[in-house]
Every structure is written in C-alpha cells, then in structure tokens.
Amino acid sequence: MVRLSAARWPMRVALRDDNGPLTYRALVDSADDAARALADVHRIGPGSRVGVMCRNSRDFVIALLASARLGADVVLLNTDFRGAALDAAATQQRLSLVIAAAEFADIVSATGVPVADPGMRSVHGALPSVPREGRLVLLTSGTTGNPRGVPRDPDIGALLGMVTTVLARTRLRCGMRTMIAVPMFHAFGLAVLGLTLSFSGTAVMRERFDPVATIDLCRRHEAHALMVVPAMLARILDADLPADAKTPPVVLSGGSALSPITAARFTERFGDVLYNGYGSSEVALATLATPDDLRTRPGTVGKPIEGVRIAVIGDDGRPVPTGATGRVFAGGASAVDEYVGGARKDTVAGLVSTGDLGRLDGDGRLHVIGREDDMIVSGGENVYPQALENALAAHDGIVDACAFGVADDRFGQRLTALVVSRGSLTSDDVIDHLSTRVSRYERPREIRFVDEIPRNAAGKVDRAAVRRLVGEEAR
C-alpha cells in the first residue's frame, strides 16, 4: 500500500518525525536503499528474522519496510525491553539481526544477536526478487510473563473491516494527517500507521511522548486524528495547556482499559472527540466506541467493527445471556490463534479468546470487566480489579491506582490497592471515597501509597513489576 501511495502521490508527505518531513517517494527510496544494505552486508532474505528496536520515527518505518521487502519476518521489539526480557525475545523469536537505534545498540549486542544501524543504505545492485513479503511478528504486552510472538501475514483484505468501520464511524478520510503518540511496536500503533499510509495520509510522530508538545504538533500540522493510550489522555488533562487548546476532531484511545472517569473528563474539556478502540495482538481491532457510545454507555468499548464477530462465552462453552459476564471471544479476518513456536489461544466456534472478561448489552455494545487472569477471589467473592481502579480514579486527589490480590491464609487473596496521590491523602480518605462506589467485598483491605504505578508502553499495569515492587505474590 505504501508503494501504491508513492506511485500516486510521490511528493505528498508520508511522515513527519523529530527530523522533519519525508515524502512517499523518499520513504520508498530510503526503504529500498536500506533493503540493499541488509541484503549485501547482512545477507538478509526469505527465512531471516529481523528485530526492529526503534522509537516512533522514520527509522522504525524504513526498517520495517526494508526487511519485509526482502521477504524477512519482522519482529517488533518493545523499546522498554532490558535484560532477561530482551534475551527471551531474541531467543524465542530466533532473531538473525536487530536493527536498533543507537541508544539501544549496546543492550541488544549483549544478547549476542548482530546489530545493524537503522541509517544503513546502499545504492548499488538490484533488489532481489522474493515470492512474498515477510510476516510481521507482534509481541504480546507480557504484563504477567515473557511476551509471545503473534505472526501476521501482510494482507490488504484483513485491513478492510477496520478501514470500513473507521470511515463509517469517524470523520477521517483519505489523506488524513494522524498524530501517532502510541508506540508503533504495539498492535494499536502499527495498525494506525498502516491505516494512515493506506489512506495516503501523513503520519506525525515523536520519539517520546510529551502532552504539551503533542497537542502543539497537532495544531501546527492541522492533524485530523490523535492516537493515544489512556495514560496519555490523563497526562494531557493534567498538563499546563492554554485555555483555548484544542485536540484534533478524532482522538482514538486504545491499548489498555479506558476509565469512564477519564473519558468523561476528556469529553468535558475537549468536546465529543473521543473514541475508544478495543482489541489485542491476537485479534487486532475488534470493537470501536464512538463519542455517543461513551456518553450514553460509560465504560463501553463499543460495537464490533465490520467483519468481526464478538461472543461472550460461559464456563460451559456456550454464549451467556445478554448482560451476563463471561469470557470474551472475537473472530474475523485479522484473528490469529497460534503464536510463534506453536502455542495456541483458546478458540470456540472459530472465535479466539481475547483473555478478557466482559458482557454484551442489549444494543450489542461490549463492556470489558477485566482480564481473566486478573480476577481476584477474596473471601469467596469474585473481584475485578478494573472496577475498583475505575472507582479510585474518580477521586480528584488520586493520580493513578491499581488493584491486585496478595496471598492470604484467611481470605485466600487479600485485595490490595496501590495509590499515587496528589497530596496528603490517607487510607481512611480512600475507603470513605469508595464506601458509596463499590460493594463492601470490592474494597481493598490494604492501601499502599507509592510514587508511581509500573506500566508498560501501552499503558497497561505491569503486573510482574508490581509483584517486584510490593515484594509479594500479587496477581
């Protein structure tokens, strides 16, 4: 699709990063020159597995296009990976080479995998002919263990449902300018990049997120859309912005759970611009909530996109009644049920488990309750951390919070909350706030005040880091 855009609009700006604009023709030429260097110097071709470890920049896009052009599989590496996590990714994904930005070169070299500079180029020699472009391998977020690889074939048809839904439910059109604040090594960020370039649009990006700079870039480049994770929305709301600051007409949040409180605050500040996308590395974009959905059904992730089926399945393997909670399954052209290495996701009637618990309302909107493996059984009651976290977020003095279970001889699991406060908040203040918002069994038996909640680049709570932080087995 990038090459089609380059043929039709060679001088249109394909992307803007910290180094300025790059046209479609220059992007394709740079990718071809990088592919020649990869083939000549590193012998990359069909069967090779190339890791890419770059922040949101032209280097990321060029490395991806160049590797795929040679028929190599491209593994997108989280820029937060260090130590054991990076070693595991390199080993499990059988990497032949990693194209790494200078800031990551040393830590990648420590894995023993060869490293290439993303600025490599060669203008000599013809590009080899390959039977097909390589696959993309997306790594799951790995919040509770080592990330697993989700392979995806480059398939234009798989994008059609997302394209159709985005056009129908938003005000975006061909040639759109999109500010991509979400990391592009995650499924959400990569999908937005692909969608923008497929629309012959311009992808605007920064290597590091800053709320003030992001809103200013949107203004300067007249962006039609801003793509973020919920944690970025919270930072934008807390930023020292001009009173007349505006967002683009479409702000799409995804990657992790969007608190109804954050959604309401954002809408009050910037108007009906917020959309909420739901999906995963395995199923891609599955549902999309519009501003009207978020206003009339707070907390919903919306209705399925074109070509996607959603089912909520009970313990007996059958769909549950409308409004009942069960396991969320999704299916469509983009769904993948097998990881690199052969491990498989649970499937029911051709639908793939998302790993979430949720319910469908009478209008077919999906409401996600939380992760299956996050559910806490305390004193015989099932407790979903997301419900408690949403209630905590409603307190003006709470910046961030997460809930988890700690092994307890009496209750099985003791519900505990980590809280980041703005001022001199006490545990009694928090419990008093929760008394009218959640059931008694949903209230934490312990509250710990911390400076920061560990989160990954997608804004999800890093459960493994939480366990290390509290020094106990939390889940």
From TrEMBL:
<dbReference type="GO" id="GO:0006631">
    <property type="term" value="P:fatty acid metabolic process"/>
</dbReference>
<feature type="domain" description="AMP-dependent synthetase/ligase">
    <location>
        <begin position="5"/>
        <end position="339"/>
    </location>
</feature>
<dbReference type="InterPro" id="IPR000873">
    <property type="entry name" value="AMP-dep_synth/lig_dom"/>
</dbReference>
<keyword id="KW-0436">Ligase</keyword>
<feature type="domain" description="AMP-binding enzyme C-terminal">
    <location>
        <begin position="388"/>
        <end position="460"/>
    </location>
</feature>
<dbReference type="Pfam" id="PF00501">
    <property type="entry name" value="AMP-binding"/>
</dbReference>
<dbReference type="Pfam" id="PF13193">
    <property type="entry name" value="AMP-binding_C"/>
</dbReference>
<dbReference type="InterPro" id="IPR020845">
    <property type="entry name" value="AMP-binding_CS"/>
</dbReference>
<protein>
    <submittedName>
        <fullName>Acyl-CoA synthetase</fullName>
    </submittedName>
</protein>
<dbReference type="InterPro" id="IPR045851">
    <property type="entry name" value="AMP-bd_C_sf"/>
</dbReference>
<feature type="transmembrane region" description="Helical">
    <location>
        <begin position="179"/>
        <end position="199"/>
    </location>
</feature>
<dbReference type="InterPro" id="IPR025110">
    <property type="entry name" value="AMP-bd_C"/>
</dbReference>
<keyword id="KW-1133">Transmembrane helix</keyword>
<dbReference type="GO" id="GO:0031956">
    <property type="term" value="F:medium-chain fatty acid-CoA ligase activity"/>
</dbReference>
<dbReference type="InterPro" id="IPR042099">
    <property type="entry name" value="ANL_N_sf"/>
</dbReference>
<comment type="similarity">
    <text>Belongs to the ATP-dependent AMP-binding enzyme family.</text>
</comment>
<keyword id="KW-0472">Membrane</keyword>
<keyword id="KW-0812">Transmembrane</keyword>
